């Protein structure tokens, strides 16, 4: 309330406090604030977020906001068109409920018109006006029920009027009907005296309410907090609900229990309503109970008296009397109200405490002169460690002692999460495979070894080892190109299949660039993928996982050198 005045007074209070001048007392602030609030309440309210006051001249409908304040039209139970004065001071309404009026009435309403006005005051829309009039005149407003048969309107001719009874005519089709799912204009609050606060515009005013939907195919909630704890399960990534032309993703499903909402044998509102398979759509504007799902359980909706019933059409019991608001049917109506009733005058008292919103501020410390002593430091070692850029323990201990004469032990690298994470090194597992081959040629490993160029141009030796039997197979290659290596391994796979009627399932080798591409796939990798063979690559710069082929190749190289040296043969043989 009055935020501009509050900010101005706050700035003035800070200025007076800093200069050492005398400020207003709490009683004086209360008197001034009461006057400012009453004056501010007469101004035209706005839609800006904040807190503001009004004395009843506020209107939320767009048509009334656009009109000039002097030409405003107020709705009244006496007519559908309305008039320029408020319904609380309408002389026709006063005459209808009391039979007399202090104001002059040109065309006094007849008895039928008076009963129609009384019946209008019984509706929910005019509930506040009815209470005001009953309190003002000290009477109880009652109305006779509407007649069962309707009559045609009087057709006026030159000087006389007559009425014709319709009797029991057959009902007619209404023709085209225009309807809205949620009409924002219907949710406009009626003008009244009060303080209005803008609380949270991110949520719909009906987000806490539960709606009975005869077109909904499933139950829906806009928050998983409404579900029974432990019943929530995540939905698939492609599940969604259709709302108009939009698709809203489903977060999950669960069970919802609405406590004490149905009538039972123990009395009104004594039974719980349990809903299964309730979808969760975060941020949906309202919670929905599907009428179709309730109908499967034997519960149906009666639109004549707006109720949920159980049983047959001729013999049924009322489970819940629903509430119709904004042309919608609510099982639970919990609007996010932003209106708070206040008294026409804010009382002030010497013994009372007046509280109004202010802005929190940190009190600025007074200027510290150079001759003042420094305050003792109570920072922890972790703070010194982070402040010094994560120095080591010895350097940090010397720095703090020289700068502030504070003795600390310092923080070791292992005790600091950030330091230990930064200096962590990659640790590669060098253990051999724990899953051995169940049969021959289930898993093979191969590796390439270079030799001095021989007389026939051969320079490379391809060693293939069967993990199950440990048998070695050697192949001499002219080079280590993709074509040479790939053809040799593919021919070996065909040989195993023809000779032993077995298939190779896994091939283990290192990250040789001749057969493994840095980007994309080589012909060797595509062949293995099509044949269903799994390629097991060992970690970079690690030979232990492929130790069988590595060791076998090293033995072949060592023995060949021994045999050549013992026979006195040249290197290029």
Describe this structure in words.
The chain is elongated and about 140 Å long. The relative contact order is 0.07. Among the domains are: 201-335, Cathepsin D, subunit A, domain 1 (Beta Barrel), CATH 2.40.70; 381-422, no CATH class; 443-567, 2-Layer Sandwich (Nucleotidyltransferase, domain 5). Helices cover 26% and strands 21% of the residues. By secondary structure, it is α+β, with helices and mostly antiparallel strands. It contains 13 helices and 25 strands. The strands form eight sheets. Strands 23-22-21-24-25 form a five-stranded mixed sheet, sandwiched between helices. Strands 14-7-19-18 form a four-stranded mixed sheet. The chain has a four-stranded mixed sheet with strand order 8-13-12-9, with no helix packed on it.
How would you concisely characterize the structure shown here?
The chain has helices spanning 3-19, 26-40, 62-66, 91-98, 111-121, 127-137, 291-296, 381-387, 393-404, 417-422, 482-500, 523-531, 547-567; strands at residues 51-55, 74-76, 79-83, 155-156, 161-162, 193-197, 210-213, 220-221, 233-234, 240-243, 246-249, 252-264, 267-280, 287-290, 299-302, 307-311, 316-321, 323-325, 328-332, 339-340, 443-450, 460-466, 472-477, 506-509, 534-537.
